[in-house]
Design brief:
The complex is a heterodimer of chains A (714) and B (259). Chain A is α+β, with helices and mostly antiparallel strands. Chain A has 24 helices and 14 strands. In chain A, a hairpin with a 4-residue loop joins strand 4 and strand 5. The two termini of chain B are 31 Å apart. The chains are: A alpha+beta (714), B alpha/beta (259).
Chain lengths: 714, 259
């Protein structure tokens, strides 16, 4: 501690404690630990605000002021409770044991505090506000958040008092962090809507679905029903002189029925009495059915509709005797025959028996669909990994710090190269546009136009950069330094100005337009664009003028650009890329492949570049010393060192891609996920089970295979 | 042959590694460089082939200023100067013959090396180089399967592939035991005497310097504090020794002591 003048006596420890009680953290600040004090103050305020906000948002009619007020009251009551308990402990410790606080007493206090909160919960809440208010503000959450916050406050008081008494002490922050975590835990419990009671009580609901998902294999096969059926014909109504069809004769060994008479009258409904006047009674005999089984009786009217006769005209379910035969009677049921009907009206009696499902051994359409989807999924993963590796491998060298950092070039050359590159880009777009027009537009010949454009882009970019850089470097050597400096500065200004122009346009359209009703007026857009161009151009000119003759860290610039781009692409989930892919290409596995490829490029690029960064630098140095150029050192010193880890990363990534493509299917990216999500929505849980099983089996197999392959390479 | 003029190297973090170092080397010399760790020996050797960019000063290689050379010029100069390292700096997972062949990259068109292709002459040259350093039977072994001494021989064979006029050896025997040290330095001596390759070799052991070097320079805190032939080294007394190695340095076992 530093000396104090006698006029300002050192504040005693309880003063610090009191300060901290009034404003959390202020006691620590007065005890000359300002960072600790500020951290405590910010934590306290942050947590209190978070608690009030959570409680307000979760209530049905959010009212921040009301909930903050109630929260404050509850907090004060919790504080009073804790203070009472602390005082009790002090008294007990003093008289019973005569010794200061120990860890055990601390634990007892904490337990007593929580127990009493639980005990007096309702009373506390009732005292805090009207029951209607409490209903709105989730009283329990507020109570426990306030309780934990109270503990934090009292810990802060004790901490300040300790610091005041022992200024050089560095007491642990552990207890404070514990209370902070406790507050967050309580709020988290509320926000995630954890409901243990519900989870336990409604657990049984899962059984119905879970049973089908866990063992869905019946759905993997086809089952058949076998129908045994025999019929006899009857004429009704029976006009005078009609004899009806011939009576069937029994056929041994085959199910048969026979009906007599074969001509009769239809039952009629007496609407006034509300009952049926029975028609002719038929006697049905039959045989050749499985003994002891049940058969159904169906009536088929003249226009071919079969139904079970109703109205007590006879049995429609008949039991076959031990000889496979039966006898039953039936009144001809009520059948509407229109008055316009012409000719004999022939009805049919059918005696039908349907077997249960019979296992056929054939795979069901569901499992075939699931297998196809699974194969598609594996292939999506494979293709995405393949394309990802092809793209990520070269990119990773640009994202490796150890390779890029030494690449430096005079600013003159770099700027010359950039100007060359810009010209090459303009040329490429112009030429590609012309070619596209002559081929009949991009839609007519997409491959030709894109191929031409890409090839031209690569070639012109290479030559543009190289010749621009070479020209600028040569000029820089021949021209006087002042001229080189001026020219370079102008070039930088032009490049920066162009960038500033575009940025200005973007800023006016993207930011300035937000509060406006419509698009930004063009004069305003122009103003921002030219303002940006002028600002950036001036900054570029100054930068170029100052650094024209110095080395520019070209490598590090490329490194950070590549890294930033990769990080952005990687931080966007494949699910989002898949949605973009489905908009681009439409539903299907190609969209999923594109999504996974993009993500794979970014993450493999990062993994590969980290493998490159961890190589031994020695061989690189040794090959540089032999006069090998950069490409040669990469082929001979870098690649042999990174091959094992790259193989390992690639297999790992394939593993991840297959797993991810199951999810990507759910948003339309094809594969098994696409089928799975449809089955889920149709509540076809047997099929869902099949898909889940296939996914699980595939992922587990792949996991095992990939880890055993990777073990060999590490 | 090699002339170092007022060479100064200050690292970006402000460490002054070399201050105003000047000396020259005649063709065919075996120049020993002595000094404590951190005295600037490695930096000096690496400045000569510009693995480390000098801050100021000039290095003339047969009249050509190495420090002013552009990338293409530097490539031509580097391939005339072989280098061997304390930790051998072999690609451990590659075969011995690939490591040796990579010494020829300075002469190979870059596009060819993309497909791992060396001419028949280069391959013959590689087996001759391995024979020369005494491990012709190890060509197809992986580099990390070899012992330390053998690995350093591969390093020398790699340098030989460059048809070097000079070899820079940065503590070539510091990771090896004394018997192997003599055998490696003996190989370098043979190359020096039979092929007339100039050798610049930084060493820790005074007795090795006396045995092999024809001339010696001593570095301390990045400055040349001693220059003389091997006779002068033999005459070195405690006072001179302290001048080179600093006040707190002490000899271990007379002149053979390691510092």
């Amino acid at each position: 501690m530093t000396d104090r003048s006698p006029t300002t006596p050192p504040p005693r420890s309880w003063v610090h404690g009191l300060l901290s009680f009034v404003v959390p953290g202020s006691g620590q600040i007065s005890a000359r630990q300002p960072i600790r004090g500020i951290a405590i103050l910010l934590s306290f305020l942050g947590l209190a605000a978070l608690a009030a906000w959570t409680v307000a948002q979760r209530s049905r009619t959010p009212d921040v002021l009301l909930s903050a007020r109630l929260f404050g009251v509850i907090f004060a009551q919790a504080l009073a409770l804790l203070l009472f308990l602390a005082a009790l402990r002090y008294v007990v410790a003093r008289f019973a044991k005569g010794e200061p606080a120990s860890a055990l007493w601390g634990l007892i206090l904490a337990a007593a505090y929580i127990a009493s909160l639980l005990l007096v919960q309702d009373q506390l809440l009732a005292a805090a506000g009207a029951p209607a208010d409490l209903d709105q503000i989730y009283g329990g959450t507020a109570l426990f958040a306030a309780g934990a916050l109270t503990a934090f406050l009292l810990w802060n008081v004790a901490d300040a008092a300790l610091l005041g008494a022992h200024p050089d002490a560095r007491p642990s922050f552990a207890a404070g962090i514990l209370y902070v975590c406790l507050v967050i835990f309580v709020l988290g419990w509320n926000l995630t809507e954890i409901d243990v009671q519900k989870a336990v009580a409604e657990y049984r609901d899962t059984q119905i679905i879970l049973r089908r998902i866990v063992w869905p294999w019946r759905a993997a096969f086809e089952y058949e029903q076998v129908t045994i059926e025999s019929s006899a014909r009857i004429q009704a109504p029976c006009p005078p002189g009609a004899t009806g069809p011939e009576v069937n004769q029994p056929v041994p060994g085959v199910p048969w029925i026979s009906v007599t008479p074969t001509c009769g009258d239809i039952s009629l409904r007496d609407l006034a009495a509300g009952k049926l006047i029975f028609g002719t009674e038929l006697t049905i005999t039959g045989g050749g059915y499985p003994p002891g089984s049940e058969v159904d009786l169906l009536w088929k009217n003249p226009i071919g509709n079969a139904f079970k006769p109703r109205g007590g005209v006879g049995d429609t379910e008949i039991t076959i005797d031990e000889n496979g035969e039966f006898v039953s009677t039936l009144y001809i049921p009520e059948v509407a025959i229109p008055s316009t009907a012409v000719g004999d009206q022939i009805h049919t009696i059918i005696i039908r028996q349907e077997s249960g499902e019979i296992f056929t051994g054939r795979l069901s359409p569901s499992i075939k669909l699931a297998l196809t989807g699974m194969l598609e999924t594996i292939m999506i993963g494979l293709m995405a990994t393949f394309f990802g590796v092809i793209a990520a491998f070269p990119i990773s060298f640009f994202a490796a710090r150890n390779l890029m950092a030494p690449i430096k070039s005079p600013l003159t050359g770099v700027v010359g190269g950039l100007v060359g590159l810009a010209l090459a880009l303009v040329l490429t777009f112009w030429a590609t546009g012309r070619v596209s027009v002559s081929l009949g537009g991009l839609a007519a010949a997409p491959i030709q136009v894109a191929g031409f454009g890409l090839a031209l882009l690569l070639v012109s970019a290479y030559f543009g950069w190289n010749s621009g850089a070479a020209l600028a470097t040569r000029l820089g050597k021949t021209l006087p330094p002042a001229v080189t400096r001026g020219l370079t500065a102008l070039e930088v200004a032009a490049l920066a100005g162009a960038a500033g122009y575009l940025l200005g346009v973007w800023f006016s359209r993207g930011v300035v337009s937000i509060p406006l009703a419509g698009p930004v007026p063009s004069f305003l857009e122009q103003r921002y664009a030219f303002g940006g161009a002028a600002l950036f151009g001036l900054a570029g000119f100054l930068y170029g003028y100052r650094n024209a003759l110095k080395e520019f860290s070209l490598g590090l610039t490329i490194y950070s650009t590549t890294r930033t781009l990769m990080n952005i692409v990687r931080s966007i989930e494949p699910l989002i890329w898949a949605i973009i892919g489905t908009i681009w290409i439409g539903l299907g596995p190609f969209a999923g492949t594109i999504a996974l490829t993009l993500h794979t490029i970014a993450s493999l690029g990062k993994l590969y570049s980290e493998a490159i960064e961890s190589i031994e630098p020695g061989p690189l140095e040794a090959l540089q010393a032999t006069g090998a150029n950069r490409l040669q050192t990469i082929v001979y010193a870098v690649i042999p060192q990174i091959v094992p880890s790259c193989i390992s990363f690639t297999i790992y990534r394939w593993d991840i891609n297959v797993r991810m493509s199951t999810i990507i299917g759910a948003v339309g990216g094809g594969g098994i996920g696409f089928i799975l999500i449809q089955w889920i929505r149709l509540f076809q849980y047997d099929n869902v089970g099949l898909a889940v099983w296939l996914i699980t089996l595939t992922v587990a197999t792949l996991d095992y295979v990939s880890s055993s392959i990777r073990e060999r390479f590490i | 042959m090699l002339e170092v003029q007022n060479l100064t190297k200050i690292y970006p973090n402000g460490t002054v590694a070399l201050t105003d170092v000047s000396f020259s080397v005649e063709a065919g010399e075996f120049l020993g460089i002595i000094g404590l760790s951190g005295s600037g020996k490695s930096t000096l050797l690496r400045c000569i082939n510009r693995l480390v960019e000098p801050t100021s000063g000039r290095i003339l290689w047969n009249g050509v200023d190495i420090t002013a050379a552009d990338q293409a010029g530097l490539r031509v100069i580097r391939r005339e100067i072989g280098m061997i390292f304390q930790h051998f700096n072999l690609v451990r997972r590659s075969s011995v013959v690939t490591n040796v062949l990579s010494g020829r990259l300075g002469y190979t068109p870059p596009a060819w090396s993309l497909v791992n292709r060396f001419s028949r002459e280069d391959r013959a040259k590689a087996s001759r180089a391995l024979e020369r350093v005494g491990i012709p039977d190890k060509a197809l072994h992986r580099a990390d399967a070899l012992s330390g001494g053998q690995q350093q021989r591969v390093g020398i064979a790699r340098a030989l592939m460059q048809d070097p006029k000079m070899i820079l050896a940065d503590e070539p025997v510091a990771s090896l035991d004394p018997v192997l040290a003599h055998s490696i330095l003996g190989t370098l001596e043979r190359l020096n005497q039979e092929d007339g390759i100039t050798v610049l070799c930084s060493l820790h052991f005074l007795d090795l310097v006396q045995r092999y070097a024809t001339r010696v320079i001593g570095l301390r805190d990045g400055r040349v504090v001693f220059e003389g032939d091997s006779e002068d080294i033999r005459q070195i007394n405690d006072e001179r020794f302290k001048e080179i190695y600093g006040e707190e340095a002490r000899r271990l076992g007379g002149q053979e002591g390691r510092v």
